[in-house]
Please model this.
Amino acid sequence: MAVGIGDKAPEFCLSGSPLADYCLAGVLGTPLVLAFYPQDHSPVCSLQLRAYSDGMADFSNLGALVWGISPQDLESHENFAIKNEITFPLLSDKDKEVAKAYQVLGPLGFYRRSIFVINRQGIITYSHRSTAGATYKPTKDLLFALEHAERVD
Model:
């Protein structure tokens, strides 16, 4: 059964850019949006992460963090962030262990574009896994999910 709404978010620690380790346990008490995306520098991923970056003031107003996760290395993430002016951390899941834990890998082992909102208690309150990677959830949908993140039974 897939991890989803109402479940405790699987714990992880990953290296990211800006250079640091990012651990779920370290941000408990803060709402978090996890944006799993297939690849740095791809057209849809660039649009998606720029849109979320453009909305960072709105995420911050709700006290929320945003982390992007994909299987590329830190150098790729850093170049991607600079080129696209991404203002939130991009985490490297090279061995795809976090993707496996969140069940976002497609049949061929590629990342599916997926979003999870995790509330202050570490519970998943919103999840979406794309079956086709050409679209992404708009910022307004994620903000709505964050506004209602504490209302999961």
